[in-house]
Every structure is written in structure tokens, then in C-alpha cells.
Amino acid sequence: MIRLLDVVLSITGLVVGMPLMxxxxxxxxxxxxxxxxxxxxxxxxxxxFVLIKFRxxxxxxxxxxxxxxxxxxxxxxxxxxxxxxxxxxxxxxxVLKGEMSLVGPRPCLFSQQQLIDERERWxxxxxxxxxxxLAQINNIDMSTPFVLAKTDAEMLESxxxxxxxxxxxxxxxxxGAGDRVRR
Length: 183
Hints:
By secondary structure, the protein is mainly alpha-helical. The protein has one domain. It is 47% helix and 11% strand. It contains seven helices and four strands; from the N terminus they run H-E-E-H-H-E-H-E-H-H-H. The protein has a two-stranded antiparallel ribbon. It has a two-stranded parallel sheet with strand order 3-4. Strand 1 and strand 2 form a beta hairpin. Helix 4 packs parallel to helix 6.
């Protein structure tokens, strides 16, 4: 049922959001010269996939976890995209392709070995990574691998249609700060 909802909601989001995404891409092109950001992330079963988002940082920013990046790397338009969570819209394509779910653990980088190990230990890597979830709406980011993996496991263990819709609804309403960037 959740995969069906992922497909229906991602198609709906891509169709309805297309005009907004075109505007964001045009502004992003002016802002950074490259509106989209692609990065290899850890997917279901530990397999790699290419995550796509709107670019929020300058193009020469090192490819590391957000909490390791200086806030000066984030452009003014990028700050807006992060606060509004609009930078996540292109991930609807990842959801449609089956690489992600709307709700699940945020996909990490392969360089985040401590988080990968914790997620393996808690069984989190068996699930599709997601755009949002329990950790995101509670401001738990990748800087605390044990807490994040434990929270992801708790979410997956109790995930129901009601909680799936709740996490999406709270995210759309602006709950959670998204991926933190150090100050």
C-alpha cells in the first residue's frame, strides 16, 4: 500500500509541482550555474543510487554530509530552498523510480561509515530511504549516528498508513529543520 501511495503521490507532486520546479531551476541556474545537485547515496540494502535535489550550495562545496559544511557554502537562494524544503522536490523522481520512499530514513553518504554501521545493526538498511520521517520532523540529523539509526528503526517498526501520512503532512507544514549546516 505504501509503495502505491509513493507512486501516486510522487506522480501528483511532479505534475502539480512542475511549474514551480521550472521556476526554481531557472533561479538556481542564475544562482549557482547548475540548478540540480546529484550525489551517490546509500540506498536500500546498502546499494548505491544517485539522489537528485535542487542545489543549495555553491558548486565547489566539498561532497560531505551537510552538518560538516560551513553555512557560508549555502547560497541565499539555497537558504530559502532549505528552509522551505523545496530543495527536496526533485527527489520525487527518485521515489517514482523506486529508489526512495516519501517516508523512510534519509539516505546517507558512503563516507558516513559510523551511520551505515549503526543502520546495519538496527536493520534500517532493509528499507527504502525516504525524503522525510520521524527523525526529520524531530530535528535529528546525521551528526548523531546512533540516535538517528535508533530513531529510524523505531519509525520503521511502527510505520503505518496513518504515521506515513502524518510525517508527510508535518513536513509539508514545515515541521523539522531539515539537514543541518554548521554555523
